[in-house]
């Protein structure tokens, strides 16, 4: 079963004085592109968290966030009284010297000033560390479940689109003999319109056979059929096949393009256009596959 690179996971844990929320989102990317926002209180665990994400998610553009909310009565943040008093005196002096009105809401102004609020550095205990890492793992688990569900949808889509191309390939068979006869008739008709033109009929037949062989599409049809089967076989091998499926879809495209350039038949060209439409939908979605 293939997996999508798209996913979202969220997990929440509550401690006696804090609420931890972990969110992780993944989009498609050729490599692992990891962006993290981790509060300073948990910064010492950043490398461990990044390693866990890289090990389990492998590829994708990953946005990882930890949010911390204080829920206890005590807070690690305190008003820095000497600093606030200093700002208060300075603002009053500036007001008197420059004739500028004093602020109507002193607290709103003073508490926004740099270093007006200080936060005590708190060492993490083992319980909080374990809770944090478990919450991170739960969020990753949820994202992986999302990826599996998305992968199932992608797999159904690929079965449908590959099946459609295979069915269209079979539709080309009735037109092959008709196509060759029309090409021959067109050439004979063009020659008959040239006055007083004589040619070696044996040589003409040899050249005609050579020309028809160049327009033969059986080899391209055989290769295209093999590529379609290989796509399904690769997809059923499990996750981690995204890049390979992308390469196979490129090969499918080459054979379809060759069919179009050699077809020389209106109905065959219509079939080729429909094949290309199905393939474009495959190419668009294969970018999301792990």
TrEMBL record:
Keyword Transit peptide part of the UniProt annotation: no
Its keywords, alphabetically, are: Endonuclease, Hydrolase, Nuclease
* Stretches that traverse the bilayer: none
Is the keyword Hydrolase in the record? Answer: yes
Residue ranges of every copy of the Endoribonuclease YicC-like N-terminal domain listed in the record = 2-155
Cofactors (names): a divalent metal cation
- InterPro entries from the UniProt entry: YicC-like_C, YicC-like_N, YicC/YloC-like
Which ranges carry the Endoribonuclease YicC-like C-terminal domain? 176-289
Homology family? Belongs to the YicC/YloC family.
Q: What is this protein called?
A: YicC family protein
Q: Which organism is it from?
A: Coprobacter tertius
Which lineage is the organism of this entry classified under, starting from the top rank?
A: Bacteria, Pseudomonadati, Bacteroidota, Bacteroidia, Bacteroidales
């Amino acid at each position: 079963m293939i997996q999508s690179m798209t996913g979202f996971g969220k997990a929440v844990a509550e401690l006696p004085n804090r609420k931890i929320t972990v969110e992780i989102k993944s989009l498609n990317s050729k490599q692992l592109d990891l962006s993290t926002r981790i509060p300073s209180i948990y910064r010492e665990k950043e490398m461990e968290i990044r390693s866990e994400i890289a090990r389990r998610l492998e590829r994708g553009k990953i946005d990882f966030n930890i949010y911390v909310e204080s829920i206890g009565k005590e807070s690690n943040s305190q008003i820095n009284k000497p600093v606030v008093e200093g700002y208060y005196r300075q603002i009053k002096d500036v007001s008197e010297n420059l004739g500028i009105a004093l602020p109507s809401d002193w607290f709103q102004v003073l508490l926004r000033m740099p270093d007006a609020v200080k936060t005590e550095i708190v060492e993490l205990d083992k319980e909080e560390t374990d809770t944090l890492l478990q919450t991170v793992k739960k969020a990753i688990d949820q994202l992986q479940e999302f990826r599996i569900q998305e992968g199932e949808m992608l797999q159904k889509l690929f079965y449908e689109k590959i099946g459609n191309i295979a069915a269209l390939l079979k539709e080309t068979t009735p037109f092959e003999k008709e196509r060759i006869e029309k090409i021959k008739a067109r050439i004979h008709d063009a020659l008959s319109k040239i006055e007083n033109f004589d040619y070696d009929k044996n040589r003409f037949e040899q050249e005609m056979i050579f020309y028809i062989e160049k327009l033969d599409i059986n080899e391209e049809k055989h290769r295209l059929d093999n590529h379609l089967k290989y796509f399904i076989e690769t997809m059923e091998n499990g996750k981690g096949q995204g890049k390979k499926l992308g390469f196979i879809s490129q090969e499918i495209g080459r054979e379809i393009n060759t069919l179009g350039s050699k077809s020389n038949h209106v109905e065959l060209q219509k079939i080729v256009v429909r094949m290309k439409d199905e393939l474009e939908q495959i190419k668009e979605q294969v970018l999301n596959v792990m």
